[in-house]
Amino acid sequence: MEPLKVGLLGCGVVGTEVARLLTEQSEEFARRVGAPLQLAGVAVRRLGRARGVDLDPGLFTTDSGALVDRCDIVIEVIGGIEPARTLIQRAMNSGASVVTANKALLAEDGESLFRTADQNGVDLYYEAAVAGAIPILRPLKESLVGDTVHRVLGIVNGTTNYVLDRMHSSGMGFSEAVAQAQSLGYAEADPTADVEGFDAAAKAAILASLAFHTRVTAADVHREGITEVTAADIASAERMRAVVKLLAICDRTVGPDGTPGVSVRVHPAMIPQNHPLAGVRDAYNAVFVQSQAAGELMFYGKGAGGAPTASAVLGDVVTVARNKVAGRRGPADSVHAGLPVRPMGEVITRYHISLDVLDRPGVLATVAGAFAEHGVSIETVRQHQHQSRQFDDETAAQRACLVVVTHAATDAALSSTVEALAHLDSVHAVESVMRVEGDT
Amino acid sequence: MEPLKVGLLGCGVVGTEVARLLTEQSEEFARRVGAPLQLAGVAVRRLGRARGVDLDPGLFTTDSGALVDRCDIVIEVIGGIEPARTLIQRAMNSGASVVTANKALLAEDGESLFRTADQNGVDLYYEAAVAGAIPILRPLKESLVGDTVHRVLGIVNGTTNYVLDRMHSSGMGFSEAVAQAQSLGYAEADPTADVEGFDAAAKAAILASLAFHTRVTAADVHREGITEVTAADIASAERMRAVVKLLAICDRTVGPDGTPGVSVRVHPAMIPQNHPLAGVRDAYNAVFVQSQAAGELMFYGKGAGGAPTASAVLGDVVTVARNKVAGRRGPADSVHAGLPVRPMGEVITRYHISLDVLDRPGVLATVAGAFAEHGVSIETVRQHQHQSRQFDDETAAQRACLVVVTHAATDAALSSTVEALAHLDSVHAVESVMRVEGDT
């Protein structure tokens, strides 16, 4: 067989590992594919930089467009919207299949990319875009295609999982944990995309699209990061035998009028310590799937890093290469269901609320009344003294901390309740509000 | 589009659930496939029996051959070697794609089935054959096809996992735990296939074939069941902070002369309590994969039952139906590597050995000498008195229990050591021998 020409766009941590494995294992790949894979070029921004891989210097080029035009398969690991989008479109329009790890682009503009793939009869694969090495997209798209997925609950951002795990294990605050994550290479110098939940939101959009056969974009995802999670929240979670995780939550929903829809959100939440996701430590990722016939499934592994991401990229490269050799395409993404994305206010969830209240008779009755007024039912209330270091003795004597965990209600009802509580005379401050998920 | 005719062979627990979901969700399946799936018939051994699904009685037939001949897709959930094999061959020879859950048949005679599939250009899918609802075969075959799998470690038999879990949690013996599993429907009236490891061995052969691109049959698998696991073994495991699991272990190996190979085995083993597989309780299944680039991955879920198995079957049905609509085949199994299967004696493992010894000076030196003679290095030795109920007081005073955990060595060296120990004058009995796995 003629070799298949593979073009690599980007040679950072992931690209380097992809190039290394492609070169080192070329004989094995040729056997798996049925034709040799020939690395035809590596597009970089600047030539002459030291790379972590020993390649013929002639392979490097700054002319990514020309590289794309002469390849059968293009691997895009540049990231970001442009020039990645233009290059992927150009590659598919010239008949190449594309493998990408670009979650941001897929979550923003997947629709136009899939249209171009369809028009040209080429493959667009992106297993590496969600949860790194963990095979989760192919199982959702193909293995579970005969089932009805009800919910996908994922820890899909390693940085925030590391930060929250450190806060739990050491009692340290958010900033200190982020600094530690940065010093160990688990967080970028500018950690915004991770800690504000943008990265997880893009992945949530991709997971929801596949799980529900519906196009969901990043803009459809309700997003809250972990920057406001405090050491007190973590301590509160531990008192209720829970852990705080940044979750991507994709739900198949039924609206008040009975119409089906989906809701997709990313936010920190307390989950019980005995939930399978609670044991996901450090920078690991895991995706928990609940479906009608299969029941509960969990997929666990490394969510980032050069080698794990390269594993996912190369799995796709071999697959699209086999398809090229066989003259076929893989199954296209199916978005036939086209379910509406429901607003966050309609989501059914539970809240954990800590209130700083005046320690006087009748306060609990007033607070309970505010919940009742909004139709929110209370599951537990716990009252305790403030820790002395928070207030001087006199203030502490007049104040108490009230921790309320609600039963399930709409997010709109719960957030109106919190707003009403903040205006009560007997409530000095709403100290923390966090959703509670993962009841089984 | 013309409907695709689907024939169902077998209408037991799984078949019933498959028929029910195919019928109830026919509109949704039509949208996912791009053509309606029409249940064309259900082959059963006897007509007129009550079934757990409300189907047109005219669909049932005892003429499975005639059904197979007029279908585009055949689902085989009869199990066993014949008539399943003949029917699957006939279906493929008449141009139908086949979905099967038949691990025994695939592990015994997969080669001839795949050859027939290739000759006829049809699909043969079997996700349900291993670990029920858990998508593990497609990830191994496709997602990890760009990586090098080093080891697959699986809990792939729910019955034995339930039995061992009960022995751990209650202290009960093997027979009592099996009886309880039977009363709850987790074990068959004749539990041989499960407790002797036949079921797990068939699955191990399938996992190894996909992981190592090599045809492995059930006969290649070293197999030991759990019938000889005692309450004392379980207690011993707990003392070393381990749990006993029936494991399917598939290893990529390098022989003494440097040649690559594979080893595949099923046996009970102690694994550390902090290993991800140790937390797999009840009748759940999980598969742990170690690969070069991806690192450690785990797949977890329900390994049996009507609905979970139907989820896997229907995922395959939709996939092969989409392939039919698109006029393509899915990727065939790749067995190009053809690695030799190495004998059990060459496998590198560790042993946990309990000895009943005479309590007199020099015994430990004699025992240690036997290990040294066979080149086996000892990791830990623990000596303790026998529990009084085992012996009368006089005997107990003269005896001690010596528990030895070895470093890694070949299984041949370890088993020769055990044989030599049994012949020592100072060793009254070798009370238990179990392998230790899962160090990370």
What's the CATH C level of the largest domain in chain A? Alpha Beta
The gross shape of chain A turns out to be elongated
Output the CATH homologous superfamily of the largest domain in chain A.
Answer: Dihydrodipicolinate Reductase, domain 2
Name given to the CATH architecture of the largest domain in chain A: 2-Layer Sandwich
Write up this protein:
Chain A has helices at 13-24, 26-33, 64-69, 84-93, 103-120, 137-143, 158-170, 174-183, 192-195, 198-212, 231-239, 306-326, 363-373, 393-398, 411-422; strands spanning 4-9, 37-43, 60-61, 73-76, 97-100, 124-125, 149-155, 222-223, 242-254, 260-272, 284-291, 295-302, 348-358, 378-384, 399-406, 409-410, 427-436. The first copy, chain A, has 440 residues and is an alpha/beta fold. In chain A, strands 7, 8, 9, 10, 11, 12, 13, 14, 15, 16 and 17 form an eleven-stranded mixed beta sheet that branches. Chain A is elongated and about 85 Å long. The model of chain A has no long low-confidence stretch (mean pLDDT 94).
